[in-house]
Amino acid sequence: MKRKEPLGMLPTISVIIPTCDRAHLLSRALNSVFAQSYGDYEIIAVDDHSADDTLEVIKRFSDSRLKCVPRKERGGGAVARNSGLAVAKGKYIAFLDDDDEWLPEKLKHQIEVLDTKPEVGMVYTGVRHINQQNGLIIKTYQPEKRGRLFKILLAENFIGTTSSVMMRREALEHCGYFDPDLPSCQDWDIYLHLARYFDIDFVAEPLVNFYIHPVRITRNLDAKIRGRERILAKYRPDMEGDRQLLSRHYTVLGKLYCHAGRFQEGRAALLKAVRKRPWNLSTYKYLLPALLGGTFYRAFLDCKQQMIQFLFKKHRLQGERIPDDE
């Protein structure tokens, strides 16, 4: 979509914040944008038909760079972000979830990369995962991958939250916006679209605080399952012939089904994973308890959770990062 405004009158960055019923957290996110060392931006807060006092919170900020886009009906994260993109005027687009916050140098460091590397369509950063209740850092993610990453991204969303990314608007317009039919994995899907055509780069420093709390969409198993199913369906042609990659996707799907108590579907997906890659031992540690039934599988999950908690305490005392387990 071409803009008619003179270039000099446009902000360099459009910051899009989708928000819904999180008035108590939104101020923290907005304040972290206003605290940025780089100031040539607009903020587009998209209120996805909140039932709380979200609009009143936005009105308390008198900065002219802040704009509000109120939606008349709830559409979800993808629709809200697309509503922001429809009115964005910046050369670059940055996203911030309403329950996260940025460190002050985030925009500055990312724009330095995009301004000097025209082949790069998106830049992501390191992220600190923080317990919302007590403020403790659970883990710190440090990026390691750059370049043409489409094949690697097909295996997993190692970039993570949209709060860490900045994109060229022209790259987004070339690839398309967020898929409103995805109940989860919307971020992964848009990264894959960009990675197919553009380089991806990173800023290694952890410049985003990602807060963990019970109401995040990632806690909704049904949404995670439907999102994973759609990702597998959309990108299946790109995965054909890669048995290891397909096995990985079926293993994750099988785990999610079993976590949700859908053991028949879970066993079927895990067996598909084994048929694709019989020597992948990590699949068997979920398949065997799933074959024994729900009671055994839940006991297995309880033991696994206890081990994770033990490792968490141990590694925190030693100042180490806990290994991820997808």
Explained architecture:
Mean pLDDT is about 90; it is low at about 1-5 and about 315-325. The longest helix is centred in the last third of the chain and has 25 residues, at about 295-320. Strands 1, 2, 3, 4, 5, 6, 7, 8 and 9 form a nine-stranded mixed beta sheet that branches. With about 325 residues, this protein is α/β, with parallel strands linked by helices. It has twelve helices and nine strands. The chain is globular and about 65 Å long. The two termini are about 40 Å apart. It has helices at about 25-35, 55-60, 75-85, 105-115, 150-155, 170-175, 185-195, 220-240, 245-260, 265-275, 280-290, 295-320, and strands at about 15-20, 40-45, 65-70, 90-95, 100, 120-130, 135-140, 165-170, 200-210. A hairpin with a 5-residue loop joins strand 6 and strand 7. The relative contact order is 0.10.
